[in-house]
Amino acid sequence: MTEKIKDIFMKISDVIIENKKYLTELDSAIGDGDHGINMSRGFKKVKEKLSSNDYEKNSDLVKTVAMTLISTVGGAAGPLYGTAFLNVSKVIPEAEFDIDAAIEIGESAINGIQKRGKAEQGEKTMLDAIMPAVESLRESKEKNLELKDALEECKKAAEEGMKATIPMQATKGRASYLGERSKGHQDPGATSSYLIIKTIVDEINK
Amino acid sequence: MVSILIVSHSREIADGTKKLAEQMKQKDVEIKAVGGTAEGEIGTDPDAINTALEEINKEDGVIILADLGSAIMSVNMVMDWLDEDIKKRVVLADAPIVEGAVFAAVEAGLGNSISDILSSIESLDIIKKN
User: B79 an active-site residue?
Assistant: First the structure.
């Protein structure tokens, strides 16, 4: 299973690197314009690290991703995604992956981000993509949906959550300095979170 | 004596603030400055913050002055990694970086305790300009 997890993170890295310009444009509108640059620098290093090492355990692989992002991103996304993945590394299963594991992974990521960023849902941050995604997984579990369908729903919820940040006023991070003027722009953090969730789902379901 | 760690998004701000604070300090106050990313760009480098915290004299405590978002977040993260007994002696001050560093350097040099220094640099008086 480690190979599969490695493939997922390699693909996430490619997607983030491909979207460097897009994320930076979104961040230039309401922030300091470095989200795409920082994220692609971090994930380039993740790719390098993962391709030059073999991992026996998923937990070790994900921990490497976390520590690499912490060391190389250079902006708030480093500690935020770094702590999220550090938490994920503690709960990621080594064998069977099911909806309970997906929920646990999502919740541990949210806890990590909230520990660092102290944000709630609705503040125009990455949590606005991730929290609805995890909520959707919980609902799918209630409805006894197949894992594949549950993941598609999760991806949809993340996308809707990302788009819902457009009218929001930022109250956390650099965008909050703009006050009312932060409205009308999609949050770059929610966008990178959506891209990560989308890639994970597409890779698992392909 | 209490030590001081300055953490900024910019290496120039960090070094400049250190220089300014050092004009005021007594000889034995240790001040360290960390700024920018590993490549010298605007941003924060948690590894550099971690190294500075490892190296700095922590005997009587460390006061950290940081500027914006990711500097604060990175400091909090690195502080979480400290051993419990050291964690108690390291504090991120609720103070502006420049004024906080200068006042802390003066007070640390006078031999004041970490809690005394914090109560003066965390007071709004230090940012009053009029």
Answer: no
Q: Cα–Cα–Cα angle for A166, A113, B87, nearest 5°?
A: 145
Tokens representing residue B22 in the block? 């050092």
**pLDDT attached to residue A1:** 65
Residues A120, A60: Cα–Cα separation, whole Å? 29
pLDDT tens per residue, range A131-143? 999 999 999 999 9
Homologous superfamily (CATH) for A2-204: DhaL domain (1.25.40.340)
Residue with tokens 């983030």: A16
ipTM, 2 decimals? 0.87
How many C-alpha atoms does A89 have within 13 Å on its Cβ side?
18
- Lookup: tokens for A94: 């080594």
* Interchain contact, B77 vs A174, CB within 8 Å: no
Q: How far apart are CA A11 and CA A17, in angstroms?
A: 10
Write down the domain spans for chain A: 2-204
Q: Give the Å distances, CA to CA, from B105 to A72, A138, B88, B115.
A: 31, 52, 20, 14
Of B22, B76, B32, the C-alpha closest to B58 is: B32
- The proportion of chain A whose per-residue pLDDT surpasses 90, expressed as a percent, equals 96
Q: Is the pLDDT of residue B13 over 90?
A: yes
Residues B60-84 have a mean pLDDT of 95
Give which of A44, A72, A85, A126 to mutate to test B binding, by max B Cβ within 10 Å.
Answer: A72
- Give the CATH fold of the B3-57+70-107 domain: Rossmann fold (3.40.50)
The end-to-end CA distance of chain A, in Å, is: 15
